Amino acid sequence: MTKAESELFDSIVRAPFGAVGIRTANDLLSELVYLPARFEEKAPSDALNLQIHQQLLAYFDDAHFRFSLPLQPRGSEFQNRVWRAIAAIPCGSVLTYGEVARQIRSAPRAVGQACGANWYPLVIPCHRVTAATGLGGFSHHDDESGFHLGVKRWLLAHEGLTQYGT
């Protein structure tokens, strides 16, 4: 990791699958980013970043942990409808893109696009949305052996859903 890469984030927390980059603005969480293992931890420099670190670590320790973080408003009205539906999926469960689409009266592809545009992965658990035939994509990535689908597999396994592999 270069210093310039580290400076992209207010803090970075180590994760079992690599790391999570944290961005904040105006006392609100503005983005979480999945990062590969080459990113080193970057200590929180304020109370909000410390709170985010603690909550991420609590989730990595216990998949049933429920996040309570101040989120910067993001996304379109449609994206927010999708994200609310995703946030209602219980830990240890999944819905398909089609099932979420039926809930909100939309199309599976549009749901997938909104999942990929999620600014707050883990807090809004888009990893709990899968394809009807298997794992599906993740964060606009669909390379079966790629980093992002590896993160999705780890998260689902962490929540007890081992049928997707690790």
UniProtKB/TrEMBL annotation:
Cross-referenced NCBIfam families: ogt (TIGR00589)
Upper classification of the organism: Bacteria, Pseudomonadati, Pseudomonadota, Betaproteobacteria, Burkholderiales
GO molecular function: methylated-DNA-[protein]-cysteine S-methyltransferase activity
Keywords on record: DNA damage
Residue ranges constituting the Methylated-DNA-[protein]-cysteine S-methyltransferase DNA binding domain according to the UniProt record: 77-160
Domain of life: Bacteria
Pfam families (UniProt xref): DNA_binding_1
Designated name of the protein: Methylated-DNA--[protein]-cysteine S-methyltransferase
UniProt KW DNA damage keyword: yes
